Amino acid sequence: MKQIERVLIKIVIVQFLFLLLAQCLLLYTPLAPYVTKVYEYEGVTKQEKTKTIETTVDRS
């Protein structure tokens, strides 16, 4: 069991290091504008208003 725990801890540490590396690449390199274009393709940055309908449900 201890061996499995050691392996899991190593995997978590490696994942954290890759997360930090990816964040640094996105925030502090000239590569960032080319990589972050994905948001434009998904439509996240568009400021379009969508029609919403407000509903209420009466619960007795």
Question: How would you briefly describe this protein structure?
Answer:
The protein has 60 residues and is an all-alpha fold. Helix content is 60%, strand content 0%.
Helix fraction by DSSP (H/I, runs of at least 4): 55-70%
Low-confidence stretches: none
What's the N-to-C terminus distance? 53 Å
Shape: flat
Radius of gyration: 22 Å
Number of helices: 3
In total, the number of strands is 0
Oligomer: single chain
Instruction: Write the H/E string, N to C.
Output: HHH
In percent terms, what proportion of residues is strand? under 5%
* Average of pLDDT: 78
Describe the largest sheet: none
Q: Which structural class do you get from the secondary structure elements?
A: mainly alpha
Q: Features of this protein?
A:
transmembrane; membrane; DUF5359; transmembrane helix; 60 residues; 3 helices; mainly alpha
Characterize the structure shown.
This protein has a domain at 1-35. With 60 residues, it is mainly alpha-helical. The longest helix is centred in the N-terminal third of the chain and has 27 residues, at 2-28. 60% of the residues lie in helices and 0% in strands. The N and C termini lie far apart (53 Å). It has helices at 2-28, 32-35, 38-42. The protein is built from three helices and no strands.
SSE arrangement:
Layout: H1 2-28, H2 32-35, H3 38-42
